[in-house]
Amino acid sequence: MADSKIVLQELTKEFKVKNGVLTAVDHVNLRVREGEFLCIVGPSGCGKTTLLRILAGLETATSGQMRIAQRNPDKPLNSMVFQDQSIFPWMSVRKNISFGLECRGVDRRTTRAVADRYIEMVGLTKFADAYPFQLSGGMKQRVSVARAFANDPEILLMDEPFAALDEQNKLLLQEELLRIWEGSNKTVVFITHSIDEALVLADRVIVMTAHPGTFKEEVEINLPRPRHIAELRQDPYFNELFAQVWEILKDEVAKAKEREGYSFHRRERSALDDESHMVM
Amino acid sequence: MVANQSTAVSEETVPREQPEWRRLRPSSDRLRSLLGLLSPLALLLLWEAGVHLGFVDYRFFPAPTSILMETWDMLLSGELVRDMGWSLSRIFVGFFGGGFLGLIVGLSMGLFRPVRLLLRPIVSAIYPIPKLALYPLILLVFGISETAMYFTIGLGTFFMVLINTQAGVLNLDKIYLDVAKNYGASRKDYYLKIALPGALPLIFTGIELGMGMALLLIVAAEMVGADAGIGQNIWTARDTFQIEKMFVSFFLIALLGYLFAELLAAIERRIVPWKRQEG
To answer: Where are the domains of chain B?
Structure first.
C-alpha cells in the first residue's frame, strides 16, 4: 500500500452562529494515499466545502489533527480549483494561468513556457490573450483547472469545479481532467454531489452524512485506467457501483431534505397563521 | 406541424438578422453622433435669433457670434492662453498630488482592516466639509499663494479618489483573496496583482469625480486668491461688465471638462481592457 499523503484525525470545525454553535465538520478521520484520486460525495450543506477549505489552509479546524506529507519543499503543497468563478477578470488567460508561478517568483521564460503548455492542453491557445469576459463558462473553468495544474502542486483540491456547467461541457472537462491528471501522479481530493462524476473520476469514493458532516462509508472504484467516460457508462460494473453508492447516499439526501423541509414547513405554517389572523 | 413551423421561423430569422445588424451598425453610429450635435446647435441658433429679434437680453446673454469674436480677440491678445495656462498648472499639481495620495491611502484602507479602522473616523469627518468652506482658513495658513490653491484642489481630489479606491477594494469578491492566499501571494502581490487592478474601474470613477471637483474648486479659488486664471477672469469680467469675456470663460471650462473626460475615457480603455465597454 502506498504512503499516506493526507491524514486527518478527529477533525472538527465549528462556526459560531447567532444562537450557538454550528458543527460543519464532525470528527472526520481520513487517510488519502499518495497519488490517489479521491472523491467525496455528500448532500448539499454537509460540510464538504468546509473540509476542503481546511485542507487548503483557508480555514483552521476547531479541533483534531491534520498531517500532510510534503515531498518537495520547493513546490507548492496544494492548489485549489474553486466552484465559483474565481479567475481574475483583470488578467488575460495566460496571466491567470501564470498566477501561481509568478507569486512563487519563477523566472519569466519558464513561467511563459509552462503557462503555454497548459493553455494548449486545455485547448485555449487561440484565447491565450483573451480576457475572462470574452470566455464561456466552460472555458473559464478550463482556465481555473489549468491555473492549478500549472502551479504544479503535490495535491489538487477541487471544489465541485464543474457543477455550474451544462452536461456536454461537464463531460468534456471531466475527460480533459482525467487526461491531464493521469500523466501527473498528483494526489487529488475532488468534491462533488454527483455520484456519476465521482465514479468516473475516482479511485475511491467517500460518502458524507448530512449535517453535521462526517464520513459514512467508502467505496473502492476498481475501474481500469486510462478511462474513457463513454465506455465506462456502459460497463455493468459501473452501474453496480452506482447503485451501491446511491444506496448509501439515499438516506443522507433524505435527511438533508428533511432538514430543509422542516424549516420550510415551519415557515409555511407561520405564514398560514398570519393569513388566518388577517382573515379574522 | 407546430414543430415544423417553429423551425422554419428560427431558420429564417437567424441568417436574416445578422447581415441586417451589420449593415445597420455604422449608419446608426453616424445617426447617434448627428443627434448629439443637433441639440447644442439648435440651442445656439435659437439663442442667436433670440438676441437679434429682441427676445433675449443681450446685456446678460450676448449673442454667440459676439462671444466667438471675443474669443478670437482674447486668443490674439494672449489673454486666453495665459489664463488657461495658469488654471491648468494649478489643476495638475493639485490633482496629481491629491489623487496619488488618495490612491495609496485608499488601497491600504481597503486591504487592511486596522488601517481602515484607524483612519475611517478622520476621513468621514473631513470628507463632507465643503473644501471651499475651508478655503479662508487655507488662505490664512498659506497666504494668498499658489500653494493655497494646490492644497485646496489636492484636498478635494484626495477624498474623491480615496473613498472610491477603498470602495473598489472592499467590493472585490472575497474569492479573489482566497485564491491569492492559496497560491501564496505576497503583500506586494496583494497590492499590485489584486487590489489595484481589481479596483481600477472604481478608481477611475474617483478620478473622474476628482476632476470635476478640481474644476469647481479652481474657478472658485481663483476668484478670491489669484491675479490670473479662468476664475479670476470671470470675476474681473463681472467688475468691468464684460459679459462676453465671462461667457468665453464658461465655454472654456466646459471645453476643459469635456476634454478631460475624453482623455480619461481613452486612458481607461487602454489600462482597463477587461471591463466591458458600453456604448
So the answer is: 15-56, 64-271
The letter for the amino acid at B31 is: L
Is a pLDDT exceeding 60 seen at residue A271?
no
CATH superfamily of B64-271: MetI-like (1.10.3720.10)
> A166: how many CB neighbours lie within 10 A of its CB?
11
Helix (H) or strand (E) holding B69: helix B64-77
Q: How confident is the model at residue A94 (pLDDT cuts 50, 70, 90)?
A: very high
**Which residues have CB under 8 Å from A209's CB, separation 6+?**
A42, A46, A215, A216, A252, A255
Question: A219-224: long-range contacts at Cβ-Cβ below 8 A with a sequence spacing of 24 or more?
Answer: A219/A244, A219/A245, A219/A248, A223/A199
Residue A158 in grid coordinates: 477541487
- Which grid coordinates belong to B27? 449608419
Task: Render pLDDT for B93-143 as a digit per residue (tens, 0 to 9).
Answer: 999 999 999 999 999 999 899 999 999 999 999 999 999 999 999 999 999
Going from N- to C-terminal start, the domains of chain A cover 88-153
Phi/psi of residue B260, nearest 5 degrees: -60, -45
For residue B183, give the nearest of A91, A131, A151 by CB distance: A151
pLDDT, average across residues A193-208 = 92
Closest Cβ opposite residue B182 in set A58, A85, A104: A58
The C-alpha atoms of residue A93 and residue A127 are separated, in whole angstroms, by 7
- Check if the beta carbon of residue A93 is closer than 8 Å to that of residue A144: no
Å between B181 CA and nearest CA of chain A: 8
> Is A82–B179 a contact, with Cβ atoms under 8 angstroms apart?
yes
CA distance linking residue B195 with residue B113, whole number of Å? 14
Q: What is the CA radius of gyration of chain B?
A: 25
3-state helix, strand, coil in chain B (%, to 5): 85, 0, 15
What residue in B sits closest to A83 (Cα-Cα)? B175
Which residue is closest to A88 within chain B, CA to CA? B176
Task: With beta carbons under 8 A apart, name residues in chain B contacting A80.
Answer: 178-179, 182
SS3 A182: helix
- B185 to chain A: which residues are within 8 Å by CB? 103
Sequential DSSP letters for B155-206: HHHHHHHHHHHHHHHHTS-HHHHHHHHHTT--HHHIIIIIIHHHHHHHHHHH
